[in-house]
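Researcher: Sequence recovery benchmark, item below. Answer with residues only.
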């Protein structure tokens, strides 16, 4: 495939008809009229007599990928099962198909071409990418999350990271069938949501936090209004009444920024039945905790943490960014959050629910998250507590019968949940 245009990263097959189309595309661009899907359709149709119907279809697809999509990366993004596509500064392309990163043979050209591709993708997301604004975190029109960063902030050349949304929304039954959680856990999770318990989904990057949260929100009653607040839109919820708020970065003049803290406050005024913060990672933690402590039951969000027991420490750190004292974070966390669901990537890259913890407070209102259900043979609990304390509390939240079923029936207090589908 030959380059369609000069330095723009546009690619299609060689030949005179393609050259004519390339000139037409650039005519639109230079006139200040960015070509959209109808324009590209018309351009491809104009070559039908020369290329035939199949040639027209190939040209249309190539144009769409080159002008409106991710160019040579588009085929990888469209591949079923792909979750991430990354381009390193050296031009190496890596793909995650759900089992970890593997390198693919794909030549994206010299550094100038790769930089042009990164700049064009940022433009598609409505963002600027150049020496003055050398990184961008945004969402493409297709729903793919884009992160791009340019030298000298990164070595060798431009780096691209594309997070591909699931082509099929995974509901709770599909996650259960895939072995995402052990038998019996689904009912516990459903009751957490149905009982309007406030919870947090924790885990590392790429562990499946957003996927699980979306599935859990899918079981919310249809008459409830869900208001989702995100810095970058990722959460796709299969529910009839979802309102989505998305943060905005400052423009070229450095004005116009709308941070997450502002959006959470706005969400409180939008008559939400449930407030959802897609990822709690900054000062918005103060407003979220305030909401969960003022009658907004059933709220939830995700947070980066290594285990259920680390979530409180994570909230302490985030609270510090909002000017909250440690005692204030603990007091609000104990009152506002009831449970933590932790996810991780197992061997082979499979995303699983690793444990379900409950929030307990001592007389000084210091918060502790205790694991009540877990895949590990040994559920670690802080001194002075036990797994039975955690399971007793979980029974108060979702019902003792659900906890008993998750443990495999009539189980001794410290019996761990059975291993899920391998």
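Model:
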């Amino acid at each position: 495939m030959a380059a369609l245009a000069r330095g723009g990263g546009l690619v299609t097959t060689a030949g005179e008809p393609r050259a004519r189309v390339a000139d037409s595309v650039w005519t639109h661009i230079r006139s200040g009229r960015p070509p959209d899907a109808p324009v590209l359709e018309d351009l491809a149709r104009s070559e039908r007599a020369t290329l035939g119907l199949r040639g027209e279809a190939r040209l249309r697809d190539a144009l769409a990928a080159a002008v409106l999509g991710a160019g040579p990366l588009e085929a990888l993004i469209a591949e079923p099962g792909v979750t991430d596509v990354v381009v390193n500064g050296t031009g190496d392309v890596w793909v995650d198909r759900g089992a970890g990163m593997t390198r693919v043979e794909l030549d994206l050209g010299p550094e100038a071409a790769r930089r042009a591709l990164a700049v064009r993708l940022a433009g598609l997301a409505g963002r600027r990418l150049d020496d003055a604004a050398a990184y961008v975190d945004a969402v493409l029109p297709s729903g793919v999350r884009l992160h791009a960063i340019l030298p000298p902030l990164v070595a060798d050349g431009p780096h691209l990271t594309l997070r591909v949304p699931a082509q099929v929304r995974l509901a709770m039954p599909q996650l259960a069938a895939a072995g995402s959680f052990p038998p019996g856990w689904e009912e516990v999770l459903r009751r957490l949501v149905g009982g309007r318990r406030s919870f947090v989904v924790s885990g590392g990057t790429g562990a499946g936090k957003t996927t699980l949260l979306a599935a859990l929100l899918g079981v919310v009653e249809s008459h409830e209004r869900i208001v989702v607040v995100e810095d970058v839109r990722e959460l796709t919820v299969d529910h009839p009444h979802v309102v989505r708020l998305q943060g905005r970065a400052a423009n070229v003049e450095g004005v116009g920024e709308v941070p997450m803290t502002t959006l959470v406050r706005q969400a409180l005024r939008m008559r939400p039945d449930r407030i959802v913060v897609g990822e709690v990672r900054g000062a918005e933690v103060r407003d979220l905790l305030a909401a969960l402590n003022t009658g907004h039951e059933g709220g939830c969000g995700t947070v980066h943490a290594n285990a259920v027991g680390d979530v409180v420490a994570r909230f302490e750190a985030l609270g510090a960014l909002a000017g909250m004292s440690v005692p204030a974070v603990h007091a609000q966390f104990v009152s506002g959050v009831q449970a933590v669901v932790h996810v991780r990537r197992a061997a082979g890259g499979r995303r699983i629910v690793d444990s379900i913890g409950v929030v307990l407070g001592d007389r000084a209102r210091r918060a502790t998250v205790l694991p009540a259900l877990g895949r590990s043979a040994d559920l670690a609990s802080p001194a002075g507590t036990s797994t039975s304390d955690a399971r007793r509390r979980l029974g108060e939240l979702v019902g003792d019968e659900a906890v008993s079923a998750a443990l495999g029936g009539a189980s001794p207090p410290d019996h761990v949940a059975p291993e899920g589908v391998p």
